[in-house]
């Protein structure tokens, strides 16, 4: 027997036919990633990394995205297998709670944003993606759209963005902090389910930590009965229970695998994704992007306002030092900039050399052309280097407010600093810094998303001031040179100018 259950964003298939289960597993190979290589690698020791599907442990019970399920049906037909003896159940209808969201006076979409609002609010079903450049107003557009739709909203975000959204909602909507229910941690989720079951107030907006939902799903796949006993419902029952009609996901690119699985376990009428860079260098991830957001459901302006000057600074690590440099982690052949930084921090000469290198760039691109109010952001790979460099710059530039922004550092460190030292994880995306004039990227990184997001920290300044993005590459480290050429091509249509210079070291 085959049991198929239909939800709004996904389809569940359970079978006791082993032949069918084998075919499904073969189909899913193209939705599995392997650390460092493709799934069809001959390396038997490779570990599966990400699975873009839901599956109960030790059972032939699968949960597919609704578009992925259509691909499965096509695949089965191509190999001559027809689904027979199927029991179907439909769970797509449920009661959506209506909310009278009101936009504050003064917030109105501009000419560029009006068609975006129309795109998001017309035919609110399945999934849509607003692919808008950084600084283009994704948050405002989405909140204006939610007010027009008028359905109770769930917002799924990484934990570090919870405070931001809790501030953005009452800034744009006529709302207070009491209207926003934050769900972070299993205790909070269990409490929310209990409130809903007792018909108590659950909030007009419900902000979920994506990690909390991930854990919820993991527990369900491990032991469905125990999960229901602990949480009070299954993941697929959660959104209907709360009356949520639309789920909004911010910065989808940052945790897309988690979002993919959260969405297939969210039986919700409509889903909106927000991302400036839903791109990947992994073909499997790209395939998953296209499953969730087919091209006709993606709003992408396809144009860039070019206002940033990019400076690539090349340099050569002296022969006496290069032998001390490590740029791979133990047991791996892949370039790792964290290993590179660790080499710098371990060796006095390497440290002094790079401090001079970075210090000269800060001098040339921020201190010397400084105008009142200008700020600077410096990216490093590790918290250890961020801490050290912050102390070094405080001593060198006592006239500037130099702060570190990493891990649990307060957001005020980022807001108030003239010069902020941070990491890609901490401030590489979804954060804005006022009057940011200069970004100095010390990290050699290949990721398309990371490079575009780092560049996107620079916003077009109202007074027409130029903005500068500076990065380094060592000519005698092959991977850094390779990443430079990739950046050059990536930035070509996104920036005002690009130039390559010899870094000033002495």
Uncertain stretches of 5 or more adjacent residues: 37-46
Q: What integer is the average pLDDT?
A: 90
The dominant shape is globular
Fourth-level CATH superfamily of the largest domain: P-loop containing nucleotide triphosphate hydrolases
CATH architecture of the largest domain: 3-Layer(aba) Sandwich
Find the count of extended strands (DSSP E, 2+ residues).
21
Kindly report the CATH topology of the largest domain. Rossmann fold
**CATH first level of the largest domain:** Alpha Beta
Number of H/I helices: 19
The CA-CA distance between the termini, in Å, is 75 Å
Major sheet size, sense and barrel closure: 7 strands, parallel
Rg computed from alpha carbons, rounded to a whole number of angstroms: 25 Å
Strand content: 15-25%
Helical fraction: 25-40%
Structural class: alpha/beta
């Amino acid at each position: 027997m085959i049991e198929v259950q239909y939800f709004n964003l996904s389809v569940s298939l359970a079978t006791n036919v082993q032949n069918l289960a084998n075919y499904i597993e073969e189909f899913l190979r193209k939705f599995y990633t392997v650390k460092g290589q493709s799934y069809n690698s001959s390396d038997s020791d490779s570990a599966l990394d990400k699975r873009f599907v839901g599956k109960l442990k030790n059972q032939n019970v699968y949960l597919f995205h609704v578009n992925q399920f259509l691909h499965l049906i096509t695949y089965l037909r191509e190999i001559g297998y027809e689904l027979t003896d199927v029991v179907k159940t439909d769970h797509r209808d449920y009661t959506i709670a209506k909310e009278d969201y009101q936009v504050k006076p003064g917030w109105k979409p501009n000419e560029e944003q009006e068609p975006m609002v129309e795109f998001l609010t017309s035919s609110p079903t399945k999934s849509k993606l607003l692919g808008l450049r950084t600084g283009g107003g994704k948050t405002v557009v989405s909140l204006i759209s939610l007010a027009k739709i008028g359905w109770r909203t769930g917002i799924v975000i990484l934990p570090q963005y919870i405070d931001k959204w809790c501030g953005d909602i009452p800034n744009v909507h006529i709302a207070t902090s009491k209207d926003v229910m934050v769900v972070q941690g299993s205790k909070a989720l269990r409490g929310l389910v209990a409130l809903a079951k007792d018909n108590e107030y659950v909030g007009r907006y419900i902000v979920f930590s994506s990690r909390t939902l991930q854990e919820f799903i993991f527990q369900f796949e491990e032991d469905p009965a125990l999960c229901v006993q602990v949480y009070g419902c299954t993941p697929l029952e959660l959104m209907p229970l709360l009356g949520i009609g639309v789920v909004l996901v911010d910065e989808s690119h940052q945790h897309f695998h988690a979002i993919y699985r959260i969405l297939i376990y969210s039986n919700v009428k409509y889903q909106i994704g927000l991302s400036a860079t839903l791109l990947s260098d992994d073909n499997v991830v790209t395939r998953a992007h296209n499953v969730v957001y087919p091209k006709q459901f993606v709003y992408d302006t396809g144009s860039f306002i070019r206002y940033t000057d990019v400076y690539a600074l090349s340099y050569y690590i002296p022969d006496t030092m290069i032998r001390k440099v490590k740029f791979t982690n133990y047991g791996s052949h892949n370039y790792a900039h964290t290993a590179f930084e660790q080499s710098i921090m371990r060796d006095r000469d390497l440290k002094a050399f790079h401090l001079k290198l970075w210090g000269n760039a800060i001098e040339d691109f921020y201190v010397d052309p400084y105008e009142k109010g200008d700020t600077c952001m410096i990216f490093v790979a590790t918290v250890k280097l961020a801490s050290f460099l912050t102390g070094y710059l405080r001593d060198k530039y006592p006239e500037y407010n130099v702060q570190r922004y990493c891990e649990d550092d307060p957001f005020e460190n980022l807001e108030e600093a003239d010069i902020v030292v941070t990491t890609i994880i901490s401030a590489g995306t979804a954060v804005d810094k006022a009057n940011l004039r200069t970004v100095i990227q010390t990290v050699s990184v290949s990721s398309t998303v990371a490079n575009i997001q780092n560049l996107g920290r620079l916003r077009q300044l109202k007074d027409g001031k130029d903005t500068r993005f500076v990065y380094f590459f060592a000519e005698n480290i092959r991977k850094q040179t390779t990443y430079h050429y990739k950046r050059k091509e990536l930035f070509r249509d996104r920036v005002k100018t690009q130039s390559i210079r010899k870094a000033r070291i002495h």
